[in-house]
Here is the input.
Amino acid sequence: MPEGAERIRYGVNLLFRMLKVLLAAVLGSRLAPLGESVVAFRVWPNDLDTNLHMNNGRYLTLMDLGRLDLMIRAGLGPVIVRRRWRPMVGTAVIRFRRGLAPFERYDLKTRIVSWDEKWFWIEQRFERGGELVAVGAVKGLFRNPTGNVPTAEVLDVLGVTEAPQIPDWILAWQRADAGTVSSMAAEPPHGRRAGENMLLTTPRFPDPPSR
Here is the structure.
């Protein structure tokens, strides 16, 4: 199949998935402010890589849809539209444990685990029949036309008044993320020298917990 046609098919597939998730979220039950979103998916042939399991990059794309479901079912949808908020990702990490084969069903579970004055920290788990397949974590925020939206403003909309204790793995991730940002800022204006590996100069991100 020509490359252009393949890109169109790929985009249409994701569009249909997004519309399905969006419609189900609008019509679905309301989540508690810190409740867990669960979205069911199936592995289709155009999700596969050359090893005939779901492509690693597709996990990150589907994580976007999991957060979309969480935002709408938590009641943020109308506020996002009215105040012109845009969800933005600052950092995303993922740990793979098992592969997903063609036509297998799986669930994507998404929940907010913590926050600070600027960022939300979100855990996203891929499970097949209760078995953990992959677990990811995202640091994200909202932006409006004038800048970043403080988490306190978002929490006020959600009706959340008490913050959960920040898990140790989130604290470790924050330290690793801060170290990566510092390393990037210290990089020479013309980039790294040929053969220099940034992974050797930046902290290792902790693995999200398997629960």
Summary: The two ends are 42 Å apart (CA to CA). The first strand starts at residue 37 and ends at 42.
